[in-house]
Amino acid sequence: MTAVMKLRLKFIKAGEMRWLSHLEISRAWRRIVARAGLPVLYSEGFSPHPKIALSSALAVGIGSAAEYADIMLAEPVPGDQALERINLYAPPGLKANAARAMDLNTPTLGSSIKFVDYRLAALREIAAADIAKLDSSENIPGELSVISVDYTPNETAVTFRLPVETKFSAVILSMEQSLGLQSDLRTIDRAAQWVQIDGGLVDPIDVGPASEGKNG
Amino acid sequence: MKDELQSLLSKVRRPGRYIGGELNQVVKKDACSRLALAFPDVYEVGMSNLGLQILYEIINNRDDFACERVFAPWTDMEAQMRENGIRLFSLESGAPVDEFDVVGFSLQYELTFTNVLNMIELADLPVRAANRAGLPLVIAGGPCCFNPEPMAPFLDAFFIGEAEDAIIEIMDSVVEFKKEYGAGGDRKILLKALSLIGGVYVPSLYDWSGSYPLTPLDGAPPVVKRRITTRFDRVPIPKKPLLPFVETIHDRCVLEIMRGCTRGCRFCQAGVIYRPARERAAATIGAAAEVQIANTGHEEISLASLSATDHSEIVAALKAVREIGTSPAWRVSLPSMRTDKFSVEIASEIAGPRKAGLTFAPEAGTDRLRRVINKGVTEEDALNAAKKAFSSGWTRIKLYFMIGLPTETDEDVTAIGALVEKILGAAREELGAKPAKRLKIVVSVSSFVPKAHSPFQWAKMISAEEIARRQSLLRNVLKSRQIEIKWHEAASSQIEAVFARGGRELAPMIAKAQELGARFDGWSDHFSLETWRRAGKETGLDIVEAAGRMIGPNDALPWDHIDCGVTRAWLAREYERALSETETVDCRSGPCSACGVCKGEVKLEICGK
Question: Which residues of B touch A61 (CB under 8 A)?
Fold first, then answer.
């Protein structure tokens, strides 16, 4: 069978689900899609696998507001309908917030995502000056740019952007050192992922032809 | 989940084991009584247990009861919990286990005993029942309860048999007790009430003077009769099995198609303690499978039973279940099969695009020894089954054998090698040259361990040295590259043997071993014979001697007060017949051998009869 539709899904990894590994998340999606009764395509061969491709692996313990999955379908299903069916079965921590039909030749998530935003939350106030230094710090591998800093009482959240090829674990390690974070580091979450189109950054869910099925 | 737990999770492997939140999980805020189902092994093993899924649904189907789960934390998690003062907690609500009304352990295999003690300790409860007060009640069920004595001092009550009805009766008693006396009430009152429920054994109501038999106190029943579920086809099947995120041992739906077995293999405890055989109809099986698949999204189902090919509607059941799956990855599997009943029809029903593993259990190498154990299959049966498998497209099969069976000689051991080689030869013939590249025969060899309530309960286990000698004998005759041998650890089998037939005298050794750090003894990388030797020495027990003990025909047995339904006289007769190489025919097709289990409502339940 050949694919007639590529369904792109945007979902979260939140709450206790942050403790799942990439493999576990991918197994969960296989079951959710099966229960939702979506006509997913399978690979050929001795051990057929559903054609579900997730965006790049996220380490155990890291949450996300912007994970993606491309699901190849054998029959067309309207995006909003797919979204509704999926969310009947997805646990709250893996809820999908958008589903859209993509052109079949839309580049894969792996090849098209160029930048990733992360949000690091610490249980204390971090001086703005220290954060400002991060942009130019030589200790941090790759090009980090700070997007925003949110202060709430006793908590600071820094959102920063990295090119996708940057070694994330090395960045976090040097940030922890530069900012002197230890047990006061609360959470790290993926905040957004971006594809680059005509020099601008676009949410991978907005790459497709129509805007059906996107709600939030 | 509490913040303090979150910080632990970043420091352990596979934190997904501890978070719950799986599909079909039941969380109840208001329940008048709560039970924590405790499985004394790691999450991946416990979640593969069928009994756990059955009880989880039965208890949670009652609006006023809540059933939650807890598994043995892996050693890294245990270290973190101890360091940070975190008590054992349930997955559903994250509540400390000691705040439940009942903690119910599943005792599936002896090598989890130290984990039971460790979990009680991690729950911050006294390990010995005598030192506990009020609730929670700490109880156990499962096959190891058929010889409960080694664990008697640690548990408040054991449940003997099939718990489908009794678990609710136990919970009702607890509710009544709480209403009347409060959670801190005198637990003696509750224990007395529980002892009157059929199948419940309260060890503190029996005096042990250092030897058996026990003396019942205070009107406790002299014999505790196993509970048996009747009209099995009508017993509800779990509709919403829990669907783990973490990959488990059996990552599939498991549907029990038959309980019990009529074959009477003489080494087999399960073949006795689940008697009589009771089948579910093919239509029941098909309908239940459909519900389970719809509720889980699983792409594989296993039709569980002790002897699936004996089921009188097995082909119809396989057909019904096979038609349900729509996924190209859909497959149906059967646990180990008898070689005399494996047919081309069965082969074609379980041969999909994804072939499930195929396992046969000839158990012994010669027809003589198979007569001794009453396996009732011949070498010809085994060869025929293998031929059918290979001609139906399988290139890999698994064979189960046991060494150290009573009356086994060196010829019997080397004959295993000859049989495997013959099967390999048949495979090459059936497959021709080309697919033979993938050809593999996995030979799994375990050591015979005498079990309570089996005809071989009086037999002895051979020594570790003798096991090693017979293993090397077999190794020398299994040389083909396509044969892969898997050995069971001889040392841990010895410990298993000690517990399988021991009494309360073993309790101090178990407590000592746990204190010395014994955990996960069923895991070869965790098992330490040295720890057990030391625990034995410090508590005055010689484990080698205890394992190799031969029990006299008239000796009192530590499990004489546990009535599994089959009479001791029948077991003794079967042992005698074994020694004279006499087979006993299957009561499904032949005459009744008067094992004693069928009476009143309890009888063979065969489809169409």
Answer: 9-10, 15
